[in-house]
Amino acid sequence: MMPITLQFDHQRSKNKKMKNKQEKSQIKGPRDTNTVKPVRWDSMEHVRPDFSCDQAEESHSGQPDKVQDQMTSEKLPLPADGQRDEAEPGLGIEQEVTMETVRDRWDSKVEYFLAQLGFSVGLGNVWRFPYLCHQNGGGAFILLYVLLMGLVGVPLFFLELAAGQSIRQGSIGVWRHISPKLVGIGYSSCVVCFFVALYYNVIIGWSIFYLGSSFQYPLPWETCPTEGNRTVKECAASSPTAYFWYRKALDITDSIDETGEFNPIITGCLLAAWLIVCLAMYKGIKSTGKVMYFSSVFPYVVLLCFLIRGVTLDGASEGIKFMFYPRLEIWADVQVWRQAATQVFFALGLGFGSVIAYSSYNPRNNNCHRDAFTVSGVNFMTSVLATLVVFAVLGFRAKTIATECVKRNMKAVFEAMSSTPFPDLLINASDVESITLNEYEHWYRTQGQQLNISGYNITACSLEDELKQGVEGTGLAFIAFTEAMTLFPGSPFWSALFFLMLLNLGLSTMFGTMAGILTPLTDTFKTLRNHKFLFTACSCVVGFLIGLMFTQRCGNYFVTMFDDYSATLPLIIVVIFQTISVAWVYGADRFLEDLKRMLDRPVPVVYKYMWKYVCPVAMLGLLGASLLKMFLERPTYIAWNREKASKEDLPYPDWALAVLSTLIIVAFLPVPVGFIHSCLLERLGQSPADAEAGYMPCATTDLTPLHTLPPSGGDPSSFSTLLEENQDTRLQNGHIEHFETSVL
């Protein structure tokens, strides 16, 4: 936001006199980049001095604050972005107030809501949540997910929303504000966001490639290519969609040890993805907010279209029924609890700092408590909607495959009957179109298995077996779902619609991830803040150059490594520290009082116990289960064997384990480094704020009631004295407060 300058006409002959008064009223103590020129109190009643957002600490200090005691709970409206308040006529004085720390704000609540929703609702809702439901008890997993969402997800999400909105800084500034020793938490969030951005944009690049390939008929993955008069062996042994993904799109190697050259097509798509991100982020939330109207809403339009189309397909009901049938016995499996908690954790984007960054651009009186429930609820409903769509389509795919299997087997049996004496069949093999799957399944159990013993190659053609072949991630999006869409009438249209949806889901999450990097760093370092566009562009260039490692022929294996290990453990540790910092270091009671003052309504006291006990215990349990799984089972990845034309699990080589460990250590390292750095500064007698040249106080637009100002005609130096007294009180308590003036 550009600095706000208010200019009032005045006789130029009094300029010198005003300058002298400014020198008298100069406030002693640490200065921030806000420059406020005091004016005559008797003539500027609409100017209201305000404290920084640190003022919440004053009510808990050991000595009473003279100004805080006089403040009322009156909540005055905040100025809209760019609003310039008109001077009252006849004031007859000149004043210029420059506020460099006035923070950008969302143009509307809708933009903010779509941004938070777009960040939290990502590719995982479409290709991860349905798979977890499928593998872990269907409806039983959904019940477990809802339970953990309420006990852990919503309280932690609300904590991040409230912290960002009240302190009005990115993740670095928020945790530094609570305690300088915790500043490493914010830097760790930035590192994790950077790691995620590196590989996440590669997935967006894959979506761009498939989107471009969808504008042709027939689709290039509908049939196997031929070499001469023969079908390519690798494709014939797998499927057209699997062949296109592994060989045409990725041209993948057989293992992570084989690097191979760069894939030029994927490299170009990655460049396009980073260009889109850079253009959408170059003006901060002003440009990002406008993009969100499309990128956050369009996926819901596509999901509804697919749902309407999917439920009309033959086999959709079988897929949905199989999906939601509850198998409650899975609740006894600890790993199911771990997977459900991890999904809740990542579905809401906890620990990335992006939730904090987005909420920091809100007015301080925004009802973030309601936002926590709204975003979490819509996120969950989106996951359920995506699950309905996925299993309606996969049910259709499974029934189509099973039906083709029945036709193929019955045709083989009928041909064998014409040349070989054959026992009486219990099924009409001459009319395969009339045979249902249930009839074939009954015949296979009673007679088909006996024919297999006699040398006939008859398969079960089980619909349930096809549905049990769960797929997730890229296997779901780029293989199973694309195969199902080839069976749709007008398949290119549906394919383009699907990959455009994936592109928008990925971009909206990517915008939030980049905000988790850019916002805290520009808040912290003045140089970066003054060159925001250049910093954004350089970040995207660096991200593209490092991301080239994912465009190698073995790049898909590195994407899997980063996705599995670069974020999971570090983010769990970050969230544990966040929760302990607020609930125990800052104080849960104190934080609830701050929220009561900010929201002008009490916050349920149950959050105190959630933040102090339930959430830390749950996160420590998740951390322990994740570490236990990592140490008991050697990490593996799924590789594609070209000769066998099939997937196989391979253990990571030693050098890859070293890279994997380095990712985890580097992501978590800022936490202890920040703590040690702060302790060293204390021993040197130098505060962290003084040592950090780019450090900025919390921006605010809140107002102080008029009755706290000196009386009309009073000397402004009297108010300066009052501020100095209050500042001395804070310094005695180990806090350095920054004072600001908001002008309406």
TrEMBL record:
PROSITE patterns referenced in this protein's UniProt entry, alphabetically: NA_NEUROTRAN_SYMP_1, NA_NEUROTRAN_SYMP_2, NA_NEUROTRAN_SYMP_3
UniProt key word rRNA-binding: no
InterPro entries tied to this protein: Na/ntran_symport, SNS_sf
Organism lineage: Eukaryota, Metazoa, Chordata, Craniata, Vertebrata
Family affiliation: Belongs to the sodium:neurotransmitter symporter (SNF) (TC 2.A.22) family.
Comp. bias (Basic and acidic residues): 20-31, 39-51
Chain spans, region Disordered: 1-71
Transmembrane segments: 142-163, 184-211, 265-285, 297-316, 336-361, 373-394, 493-521, 533-551, 571-592, 613-632, 652-676
Name recorded for this polypeptide: Transporter
Gene Ontology CC annotations of this record: plasma membrane
Protein's cellular compartments: Membrane
NCBIfam families linked: Na_transp
BP GO annotations: amino acid transport; sodium ion transmembrane transport
Molecular function per GO: metal ion binding; symporter activity
Pfam family, one: SNF
Signal sequence coordinates: none
Main location: membrane
Keyword tags: Membrane, Metal-binding, Sodium, Symport, Transmembrane, Transmembrane helix, Transport
Bilayer topology: Multi-pass membrane protein
Keyword DNA repair in annotation: no
Residues reported in the UniProt entry to bind Na(+): G118, V121, N125, N379, L505
